[in-house]
Write a structure and sequence with these properties.
It is a single chain. The protein is α+β, with helices and mostly antiparallel strands and 173 residues long. It has five helices and five strands. Strands 1, 2, 3, 4 and 5 form a five-stranded antiparallel sheet that branches. Helix 2 crosses helix 4 and helix 3 runs antiparallel to helix 5. It is globular, with a radius of gyration of 17 Å.
Amino acid sequence: MLLECIKTRRSIRKFKPVTITKDQIKVILEAAMLSPSACNTRPWRFIAITNNEMLNKLADVHPWAGMLRTASLCIVIVALPKTQESVQNGLPEGFYPQDCGAATEHIILQAEAMGLGSCWCGVYPRESTMNAISQALDIPSEELPFCLIAIGEKDEFPNPRGRYEEEKVTWIE
């Protein structure tokens, strides 16, 4: 059941060494590409990194991504804001953060469903972090690094949390 996967998913910051195959990565990326986007503009591209040297470099330049030193994979979501310009009279323009957020959520849930751990590390909208990641990965200026997602075999197992809070719900019946 999806709700159980959502409940057990936690941010993992310690990973065991393991190889994640290209086929596994493709499944994770397919899940991302199935996420909704404004007017189906799909304002994203993905960078899949398994190279240890680059994982360490990203850990060096992102202030909260130290877990990349033990991760097997980092998926970088790169936002493509221009893909939403001039579509349906500008209707989807500016919705790329929500769209990339949905793709990120699909990635971390797919990783959990595959028995892998993940940690979502925000990049956008922090200018200094965006600049550092863009420089490290040679991302063109019209594209925006949105987030890094560390993925690997879990080496920690935080307890699931229940988070339903009735007081945050307004019922209109």
